[in-house]
Backbone:
């Protein structure tokens, strides 16, 4: 019967010795070679130039939109968020009051009926206003498309054709936007090099 030794820890005479001095020497030679220094500098310069171009494109996008457009987009989103929060608060308070949750009786009694429907109507109106506000970026256009496909407009007075025209106008504006052209041009020059 033979007894096998466990693999770890190995005996001292079985250990491999790494020659760290040769690794350090190779690293120092790589740092010292003039061609690696220049290529590293070139890569850093290209990275910095790309970052500056992206920053300039974002700044151009922000500055080309009229001040009122930016305020309208922000206001429309906040109005939608507020209307939804009011609707959710109403539902939560109504449920808490129905189950006699401590502290819920401190607030005015909410009945199911017109109060809820008014809040739903206000939320839908705010949502339609947000969907008709010009989109600042592709993400906002995609959000509009999801809302449109989800049928959020069905119970409002806004016609589907009007919403589709607004989405198409956003896409057209984004495709023609100068910052999009400069980003595409910078990518094209990168591929050419």
Residues:
């Amino acid at each position: 019967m033979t007894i096998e030794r466990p693999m770890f820890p190995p005996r001292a005479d079985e250990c491999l010795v790494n020659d760290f001095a040769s690794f350090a020497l190779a690293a120092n030679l790589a740092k010292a070679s003039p061609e690696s220094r220049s290529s590293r500098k070139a890569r850093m310069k290209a990275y910095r130039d790309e970052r500056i171009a992206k920053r300039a494109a974002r700044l151009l996008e922000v500055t080309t939109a009229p001040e009122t457009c930016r305020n309208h987009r922000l206001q429309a989103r906040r109005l939608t968020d507020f209307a939804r929060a009011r609707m959710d608060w109403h539902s939560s308070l109504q449920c808490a009051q129905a189950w006699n949750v401590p502290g819920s009786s401190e607030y005015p009694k909410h009945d199911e009926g017109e109060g809820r429907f008014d809040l739903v109507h206000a939320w839908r109106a705010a949502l339609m206003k947000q969907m008709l506000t010009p989109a600042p970026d592709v993400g906002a256009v995609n959000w509009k498309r999801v809302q449109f496909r989800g049928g959020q407009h069905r119970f409002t007075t806004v016609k589907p054709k009007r919403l589709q025209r607004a989405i198409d106008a956003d896409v057209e504006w984004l495709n023609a936007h100068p910052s999009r052209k400069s980003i595409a041009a910078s990518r094209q020059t990168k591929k050419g090099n």
Observations:
- Residues 166 and 172 are 10 Å apart (CA to CA).
